[in-house]
Amino acid sequence: MITIPDQLKKKRYLAIVGGVLVLVAALFFGSLSPVAALSQIEVEGTTGRQADKVRQAANLEPGTPLVKINENEVAARVQDVPTVASVQVSRSWPNTVVIKVVERKPVAKVEIGAQEWEIIDSTGQAFRTTKKLPDLPTLEASVKPPFTNHGRTAGAQVLGAIPDWLKKRVTTAKANDPNAVRLLTDDNETIVWGTAEDSELKGQVLRILLKQKGMYWFDVRNPRLPTVAAVEPRPAKPPKAKKETDEKCAEGAESTEDVESTENTENTDCSPSPDPSTSPSASATSDPASSDSNSPDSSSPESNTPRRTGEPYLLP
Question: Over 90: is that where the pLDDT of 275 sits?
Fold first, then answer.
């Protein structure tokens, strides 16, 4: 059996370690050399002026060693470009940095002044302003609580989720209620879309419903139970409150000489509410003497005068 002397083993071990150290040193110092320094920035996902803005935002100096470039810091700087929705930065050895961006896609315009609009994406984020009327749907969102911001976001999400064939027809989106976004088309149709949820199914159902002639109002908030009509259905009026009825009776009684006012109140129940003190049981327990001495004669003019509704009722 052949054995390797311990001295030979030690030499081999030192040779291997030394080789590794030399390789690491070569890589390290080589990466700091001009050969491994930044000389090119590639931008993917956009071109022209927008690509130039991305390079400017990256703020990378030519000649910087690639090992010293922090990809996350570069991505954070590029993310500040308004038109950039997302970004990814990587190093391509020996001398290139690659920046991949996804640009924001416009879905609507929001009027912010006289002949001035903001362009927003499907998240409701504005990324450009213009004074030239864009060929995009107009988004009208509530600015009142509790829907101050939710309406704009919901409307933008719906406009980003509807099918392409419908996007070409929508002229206005109304998001006064984020749960009931409405779309107005170029054919005077009103579509109650609701939220962006189930947009694919809603689009399929709506495409079938639009084939019905004479229908201009469509509710697909629940695409499995849609509603169509020629005009927007109006909710039934709630019953009049008791206070309103009493006021109407009082006005009618004060103008009994006016025939028109009397006709307006003849269908209103103006009978006074029963008073426990005037019930038969209360009369039976009252003092007969007091009743005889104070009650007016039934034949007197005073007893025949009608009592106006709303006046306090005094027991005789």
Answer: no
Within this chain, do residues 98 and 126 fall inside the same structural domain, yes or no?
Answer: no
The per-residue pLDDT for range 95-128, each reduced to its tens digit, is 999 999 999 999 999 999 888 999 999 999 999 9
Q: With bands split at pLDDT 50, 70 and 90, how would you rate the model's confidence at 251?
A: low
For residue 295, being part of any structural domain is answered with: no
Phi-psi region of 48 (alpha: psi -120 to 50; beta: other; left: phi over 0): left
In three-state secondary structure terms, 248 is helix
Contact status, residue 81 vs residue 54, Cβ threshold 8 Å: yes
**Whole-angstrom Cα distance, residue 121 to residue 129?**
12
Which pLDDT tens digit goes with each residue over 73-89? Answer: 999 999 999 999 999 99
Q: Which domain holds residue 44?
A: 34-103
CA–CA dist 50, 6 (Å, integer): 66
* 216: CATH: 3.40.50
CA 217 vs CA 191, 207, 222: distances in Å: 6, 13, 14
Task: Report the C-alpha dihedral over residues 151, 157, 163, 167, rounded to 10 degrees.
Answer: 60
Q: Pick the residue with more confidence: 146 or 100?
A: 100
* DSSP E strand stretches across the chain: 40-44, 84-92, 96-103, 108-113, 116-120, 126-130, 138-141, 170-175, 181-185, 190-194, 217-219, 227-229
Please say whether the dihedral angle defined by the alpha carbons of residues 190, 194, 198 and 199, taken in this order, is positive or negative.
Answer: positive
Q: How many domains does the chain have?
A: 3
Other beta carbons less than 10 A from residue 60's beta carbon: 17
On whether the CB atoms of residues 172 and 138 are closer than 8 A, the answer is yes
What separation in angstroms does the CA of 31 have from each of 69, 75, 313? 12, 22, 103
